[in-house]
Amino acid sequence: MVLPQRPAQQLGGLAISCVLLLLGACEHNNPAMKVYPLSRREPHDALAVVNQPDGYGVHIWIDADTRTPGVCKPRWNADPARLFNGNGSAPFSSGLASREEFFQVVNNGRVNKMLRRESEALCQTRAPTASFEWVEPPRQDSEVVIEPLPPLDRADLLPNPSALRREEQQMLQAEPATTP
Predict the structure, then answer these.
(1) What residues pair up with 175 in beta bridges, in sequence order?
(2) For residues 23 and 28, what is the distance between their CA atoms, to the nearest angstrom?
(3) DSSP letters of 33-101?
(4) What is the pTM of this model?
């Protein structure tokens, strides 16, 4: 036999259910997270994400991959800079934040939407005639692609210091003496 519940008990159960539902929603999408463009060198090349107290967060760098003719897509660096003073008037970044933090923030819908918008704007600036192709940022270590650096040419290398010194000595010896 089920005893009828009093209205106060029903409201208490409903209130607990609502609180649990709200807590679950907050776990997936942090409304307190602040997301805004914060350029490094040119417009649209980075995004600031304030995800910690006191204005700390990550500074995600955005690059454009234009190696395929007629196509521009984002190239991701999963090692973001640490953002400081993100809630202040002069935010800046220094050092590195963790990849785990990068993966955590790119899973946020607002961050992902802003990354896409800024990536598309950067591609429009760098390759205006190319079509934009969205590539999702990596969400775990196994998805991170490390781009190899191009090989150095001989012209990129510094000369041998001993050989340079010998050449300087030979040039000094070959100069005619000047009279005062």
Answers:
(1) none
(2) 9
(3) -EEEE--SSSTTSEEEEE-SGGG-EEEEEEEEE--STTEEEEEE-SSPEEEESTTSSS-EEEEE--HHH
(4) 0.66
